[in-house]
Amino acid sequence: MAEFTTEAKPAAPDVSLDAQGLDGQEATAILERTRACVDPELRAAIDSLPGSMRRIALYHFGWEHADGTPAAGNAGKAIRPALVLTAAAALGGPGAREAAVRAAAAVELVHNFTLLHDDVMDRDTTRRHRPTAWTVFGDADAILAGDAMQALALQLLAEDPHPASGAAAARLAACVVELCAGQHTDTAMERRGPAEVTLDEVLTMAEAKTGALLGCACALGALYAGAGGEAVGAMDAFGRQAGLAFQLIDDVIGIWGDPLRTGKPAGADLVARKKSLPVVAALTSGTPAAAELAVLYEAPYAKEDLERTALAVERAGGRDWAQVQAADRMARAMQELSRAVPDPEAAGGLLALAEFVTRRSS
């Protein structure tokens, strides 16, 4: 069983409030600029799809209602394309940022392909405060729309005349394979008993499912800036560590997040009996609360047990562990970032984005 260390720990990130202060303002501005320049590229790519898949993709991004009428919905925060563009600018200046817009759109398409598929596999009924695509259009059509988005992503890079596009396409394709492997591990874990999953396994799975694409986004930005192999590798490592911090906080939100902000029911991960990072940390803590949690997780979900289950995770140390781990992963991310971009001013945008995603409440 994993044990919780008693060594001095870094301060845990605050997940009760959105990112605030100058870093939060800078990150928000970066995300807004990213949506403004990447959305037209995304729309053009999606408009090239056959009608049935185009309709589902436009609905998923929040740009149309289910009946095909225009909507001004939420297309997501654009964190991954923002990392592509900000990494390119940090290493190559504004010109590199402008040249990487197509790569940023490709990363966002891959991200949304995974969301469409994840929602089907997890049977999630809400995404971005509206019904998920599979609940509206059916499993098969939602899966096909996701497949089409993945193909569009690689097509965007294949048709990009930028000299880095070939290396970027190969890296993104390898990332998709890693994402699929991580998802396979995740679904396999859900079929195992609560006591059969180790913390190392779930951390490795989280890096593949979440860290890999954030790392790939940063690496693609570095490639489009003309960076060398060492800097590209450091940027990938930065994104992966920030991605793990992101997933740790996301898992905390999945248990204790406010439904009005997350767009998902309270305790959605507990209802689904997901072996998220805080849950596995709690289950492997060797505490009396861990034993109680294991019994609750073995039993079918009962609404009256939801609060008790969340409390058991917290009493077993799962919430504290996740927050401390998130801070540790962020510290590692900063070390990698300083290797790739030694100038703190040039690295400021990437730092602001990393802080933003680990200091959020939805």
UniProtKB/TrEMBL annotation:
Keywords: Magnesium, Metal-binding, Transferase. It holds the Pfam family polyprenyl_synt. InterPro entries: Isoprenoid_synthase_dom_sf (IPR008949), Polyprenyl_synt (IPR000092), Polyprenyl_synt_CS (IPR033749). Belongs to the FPP/GGPP synthase family. This is Polyprenyl synthetase family protein.
